[in-house]
Amino acid sequence: MTLADHRKGDDAGSARRSGPRIAVVIPALDEAQSIARVVEGLREQVLLASGDIIVVDNGSTDGTADVASGAGATVVLEERRGYGYACLAGVLAAQDAEVIVLLDGDAADDPDDLPRVLEPLLDGEADLVVGSRVAEPGSRARGSMTWQQVFGNHLAAFLMRSLYGIPVSDVGPFRAIRREDLLALEMREMTYGWPSEMIVKSARAGYRYREVPVRYHRRLGVSKVGDTLLGSLKVGWRIVSTVLRYSRWKPRKTATARVSR
Q: I want to staple 168 with a disulfide (CB 3.0 to 4.6 A). Which of 47, 134, 157, 230 is the partner?
């Protein structure tokens, strides 16, 4: 099935609409400038014709929640500050969803890449799909990541490849996983270690990992942490320490949904 099939809404796209219920979870902190564009872009996707778009407001003071609601999203408020807290709140709120998609609310991730991220999961070829911003030359816009972010990302990916044998090129935020499988990982990193924890634990649990190339634009608005050297170092340390922390982790149970696929 091609991406054109998904976007044109032909017979293959119609079949997808009757598939598993999908919820997109968007953690957001002061993203009033960009959140409507993200939500509206997602609402145009055929795969979300019967799905949910959940924006988790993580303590915004710029009216992000109102803008998101006005654009058609379901808004969840999470007062505990932290990227992981916001992601988890959205996952828990999506009680009817079978598949969870995560992406950021700053318009750096491209909603039109949703079919590409979902396809391996919906086709039963992967259990965790992560969008790679470096898999294809030119997919990452100039200035979309600072050199500190690029270095930290490469280091985390290198450690995952070396320690766990996971074919990781990028620890990007745009990803898809079945809700049951995600909950089975018992996520604990409530700040910026969340994305790395998910990849490491999924490998320890035996999940099939897949990367797909995605585009990455310059964000709208101001970065909350990554544009300063100190902020980047803090985030980088959190990510790297998370990669190392779960080297002995084992799941208490294997998600039954994967056994039957």
A: 157
